[in-house]
Specification:
18% of the residues lie in helices and 41% in strands. The protein is α+β, with helices and mostly antiparallel strands and 181 residues long. The chain is elongated.
Amino acid sequence: MKGKKIHIIIYILVLISIFAMFAGSFYMYYKNVIKKDDTNVIIKNLNMLVSFEKSSQINIHNIKPGFEDSITFSVENYSEDTIGNYKVIAEIITPLSNMSDDNFLYTIESTSESNDTSNKLINISDVPVPVVTKEIGTATITPNNIHNYKITIKLKDDADKSKYSKDSLFSLRIKVSVDNN
């Protein structure tokens, strides 16, 4: 008699468990299939393109006072709904010297195709070229917009000619990367 009561209790527990699983399955089906349209998930994607006009690198050999060279590039945000942040990095491959030189300068000029106040460009005038890789600025670009840049490297005309050897070498690469901060 005692064994029959235990079997009946186990059967009832199994029946309750099966009913609970059926009810849970029906609820999940109802929530995910039938009432699916109640929740809208919006995913925004940042789609950026960086284009260099000729090269992303400046290589200088036998530099003399009055030297000037430039890199031009554009950053395009072709996403429909996402504002993007990016940073411009000057990767120094071969420095001109071990110390920063006040006669060896860079300038960054930029323009935007949008007048939106959310845009933030990088504009820098006559700053000594770094001797190590350095982030030179961060910018913000609005959707469907293009930022155009020109980075100019120059050695002043009045620089001391004797400081720069005949075999002087300088190499710099510009990198642009998404800034997720």
